[in-house]
Structures are given as C-alpha cells and as structure tokens.
Amino acid sequence: MKERIVSGLSFFLGRCYFLCFIFILSLSALVDHQKVIFKTLDYLRDPGYILTYARGEARFFPSKFLDTVRYYKNFNKIFPDSAAANSVLGYCYYRLGDQNRAIFYYKEAIALDPELFGLFHNLGQIYYRRGNYKEAVEVFEQGLKTSPLKTLQYPLYVDPYALSPNPRDRSTKEKTEGLKKGYDFMAMLVQQSAGKEFKDMDKKYQARFYYYQPFYVIYRAGNKPQLLM
What we know:
By secondary structure, this protein is mainly alpha-helical. The protein is about 65% helix and about 5% strand.
C-alpha cells in the first residue's frame, strides 16, 4: 500500500514538473515574441515608405506594402485600440487591390474612432468605386456629421485635398481649406445620389485617400510603449 502511495505521488510530482516546464517554455516564447514586436515598433518610429507614398513622393512597390501590413498587424497586438493602425491596413489593402480586407479594416478603424473624417471618406470612396452606391452614401452621410476638429488636431496625416500633403508644412488656414474640400466633395456625391444622378467620377477625379499615421512613443526603460493618437 505504501509503495503504491509513493509511486502515485512520484507520478503526480513528475506531471507537475512537466507542466511547469511546458509553462516556462511557453512564457519564454511569449516574451521573445514581445521582443520581436518591440523591435518591429522601432522601425515604425520612422513613418516610412507608406507615408511617403501617400504624399505622392514614392513609386508603388507591392512588397513594401506587404511589409507594412505585417508590421501593423504586429502593431495591433500591442495597440488593439488604434484606429490609425487599422486605417493603415485598410489603406495598404486597398492599394494592393484587396477591397474586401480594406473595407474590413476601415470599418474597424471607424468603430474605434468615429470622429476621424478621413476614415469615412476612404471607406465611402471604396464603396463608390466598386459600384456599391447605397453603402457609399450611408458612409458619406455619417462622415458629413463628424467634426473637422479631430482631424485638424491629428499630428501626422495626409490630406489629399491640401496643397501641401505634409500637415507640418501647412498653416491652420491651409489645413482647414484642404479639409473643407474633402467635405465638399463628399457632400457633392451625396447630393448626386439624391437625384439618382450617379456618374463615373474616375474620369474626372483621381482616387484620393486620407492617410493617418499612428502616433506613439516607446519607452526604452522596458515599459510598455504608449499610444498617443
């Protein structure tokens, strides 16, 4: 009887040691994975290629867009509530020709921050250009209800209607005028829909998209990075 108890106890302790070993291995793998993510975020401290492309200062390279998609999917693991990060993914997928994924990520971005005008503008543009006019108008009408203040205060974004694509190079007046053109364009499309006068806008207007870059800081002391916007 005593031998059975000792044998059972040894077996139980052995299982416990094994489970603890597996747990430690899993924890170390998680830590290493976090290190990889933090290393990725180091790259993202520089706005990089996509922001340059959005300003019209770089040629289209699909591989760089795919790299950015991978980076921002990692970014979302640390900042799951970042509307801007989801909008970057939407922007990249649209430029890569995957409209379904672009729509998904723009919807995610809007759910996280329903006050950024450009998110509605971009999502509505995608619907409009694929012929989903009803959905486009619904999104545009929501966008027209947003306040321009949130976008005007955003530290790093590209306004496709402004003379200078870099917000740091523009005065408050220029920012306001650029954003007003975006609202006016959206209102024009909604007005056309009311009279059922939809036209092919592609021949007259080039595809214009707002671009929002996530804005955050990384603390080198080992603390978790902080998302500012």
